[in-house]
Every structure is written in structure tokens, then in C-alpha cells.
Amino acid sequence: MIMRHWHNPFVFNSNFFNSIKDCYKLKLFKWSFFLIISTYIPFTFSQENIIHNEPIKPSRIQPYQAEYSIFDGKKKMGSALRSLTIKNNQWLLTMSTEISKYFYKLEFKETSRFLTDGFDITPLHYESVTKRSFKDDRIITSQFDWKKMLEIGSYNESEWHINLSELVTDHLNFQHLLRLKAPLNLREQQIKVSYKGHIDKLDFFNEGYEKVSTEFGTFDTVLWAQQIENKGDKYFLFWLAPELDYFPVQLAQFRNGKPEGVIKLKSLTYLNDDA
């Protein structure tokens, strides 16, 4: 489990109180107190409490095609292709993964079609196809009808209907939402994800800056880590690079506290914007 340490914004050090005492002796307590407070507050209050003069905009998003390498420790065990295109103002995000390990082979492809408006994502259609050694193929689809506030989905031959009361994301585009909101520099984000017929609330925490080395280069990134309730649960980590408009340069999936695979950026090509 990812552990985080919080500071108490109301705990001041001894120098703070000594400064107040000295100012009182000089009969300048009132004005000096104001100056001291204004000096300490920016360092003691969390960043989401700071008022910004300029409105913060979502990350600049443009169509792209990216290639990743997948590692098990230092050993490469697969590759992934990720692309984002736009047509008729609808975005299409695609992620294809191939992994081979000993006699086991996995092919997994997800597609998500959605709309964006500021910091909001409106999913329209989701589909994933999983092909695995020794197991049957798995196909999952979700169709979102926002006029009826309804999701109709299927998992192989099973079907479900979910009445929606608010916006949700799907199993792929929640990653895009995390990127959209990254410039807000929030402490945490809770994202509602619809998958396999139920809606989960995923909690992500901003773990600060980390330097990440990839085949595409070395980047200063912001690490977003998913918080879990049970040690055995699966969880994700995303390293987003501000200099690439918070593009995910590294991703990792953990289970039982151990990485199941680390995905590192190998190449990134921006495509023509065909809105």
C-alpha cells in the first residue's frame, strides 16, 4: 500500500512565536504579526488552498501515437502501442498490449470513444478484447446513452444495464482524465470508473515529483498512485511528464505489493489534428 505523510498546517516552529514576542516589545505587534503570518502561510497550507489569479486550463491534448516497452524487472517481456485520434469532435483512445513470458502469451486491446469539455470526459463507447494462452477470449463492451442516462454493456454473453446519475469514465479513458486534470496540481483525485457492470471509485494521490528514465529520454514527472483498501488488490501508478503536457511516460500495475509489469515510453509521434 502506498503510504503518505501529511504535515499539520497549524504547527509553527519556535522561531515564529519568538518573532511575535520581539515585535510585541517594540509595540509593532499588529503590523509585524501580519507580515509574519503572510510569510509562513504559503509554506504551511497545502497547495490546493492557494488562490490562482489566472484560470488553470486542462492539459493541452493533441493526437498522437506512442510505443512502449514492457519490463519484468530489467527483462523486457512485451510491448504496447497507444494512440489518440479525433474525428467529428470525438476522441478515440486505443491501447494494445502484447506480453510473452515462458509459455504464456497475452494480447489485450482496449478502445474508448469519448467527448471532452474542459476537465470533464463523457464516454460514448468502450470495448476490450483479451486473448490469453490456455483460456477463452474475453470481450467486454459498454455503450453510453447520456440522453437516457443509461449504460448498456456486455461481458462475453452476459449483459447489464446501469442507470447513470452522473458522469463516469470507462476502464481506459480514466487515465486520460487523470492527465487532463494534472495541471490543477491536486493532492488527490477520486475517479468513478464503470467496468464489467459496476462502478468503482478509484482514489489517486499525488506523490510528488520523480525523475524517470525511458528509452525516449529522462523526464521530471508527477507520480499519481492509486490507493487501495486491501493489500491483495490490484492498483496502478502513473508517471506524467509536465514538459510533454503530462503525457504518461511510465505506467505500472501492482498486485500484492509487487509489480506485474512496468511500461516505459519508447517513442512518441504527434499526429495531424483532424477535428
Q: How would you characterize the overall build of this protein?
A:
The chain has helices at residues 14-25, 29-44, 173-180, and strands at residues 64-72, 75-87, 90-101, 104-117, 120-132, 138-145, 150-155, 158-163, 188-195, 198-214, 217-227, 234-241, 247-255, 258-270. The chain is mainly beta. It has a 14-stranded antiparallel beta sheet with strand order 8-7-6-5-4-3-2-1-14-13-12-11-10-9. The longest helix is centred in the N-terminal third of the chain and has 16 residues, at 29-44. It is globular. The protein starts with 13 loop residues before the first helix and ends in a 5-residue tail after the last strand. Mean pLDDT is 83; it is low at 1-53.
Keywords:
14-stranded antiparallel beta sheet, mainly beta, single chain, 13% helix, 275 residues, 3 helices
Task: Please specify the SSE layout and strand pairing.
Blueprint: H1 14-25, H2 29-44, E1 64-72, E2 75-87, E3 90-101, E4 104-117, E5 120-132, E6 138-145, E7 150-155, E8 158-163, H3 173-180, E9 188-195, E10 198-214, E11 217-227, E12 234-241, E13 247-255, E14 258-270
Antiparallel strand pairs: 1-2, 1-14, 2-3, 3-4, 4-5, 5-6, 6-7, 7-8, 9-10, 10-11, 11-12, 12-13, 13-14
Helix pairs in contact: 1-2
